[in-house]
Amino acid sequence: MTHSLVCPETVSRVSSVLNRNTRQFGKKHLFDQNEETCWNSDQGPSQWVILEFPQRIRVSQLQIQFQGGFSSRRGHLEGSQGNEALSKIVDFYPEDNNSLQTFPVPAAEVDRLKVTFEDAADFFGRIVIYHLRVLGERA
Question: What share of the chain in percent tops pLDDT 90?
């Protein structure tokens, strides 16, 4: 059965936070299920989110809800097990809108994921995400 794999023990890191204001725009807002909060990156050519899971997982889908105008036109998902180097799992191509978008992921067993967002719709390269979900099952 597919369910959200991000749990309180999942360690997350992000490339940047707008004006370093983690209280208002920090990474915790990616997973809080609150429609009023979001992660807002600072400007830059690409942005990323790294997730380190407490156990091995089998990813099947990635769900992302951007703020229209602050989305990514191209992204890729990388993963690894243990201390291995990250390797590309899949490229994805989001639409520039406010909808929750679902991207299928080829079968991959990992305990670390990196989601990279490139070619931002925003001129300055900022990305705004209201929800980030990794769906699948524990391996």
Answer: 95
Classify residue 90: in a domain, yes or no: yes
Q: pTM for this one?
A: 0.94
Three-state DSSP state, 124: coil
Q: How many domains does the chain have?
A: 1
Structure-block tokens of residue 79: 């993963």
Q: Could you tell me the two tokens for 117?
A: 């967002």
Strands (E) located in 67-93: 72-80, 87-92
Q: Report which secondary-structure segment, H or E, holds 24.
A: helix 22-25
Token reading at 50 = 């790294």
Q: Say whether pLDDT at 139 is over 90.
A: no
Q: Which residues pair with 39 in a beta bridge?
A: 129
- Cα Rg of the chain, angstroms: 14
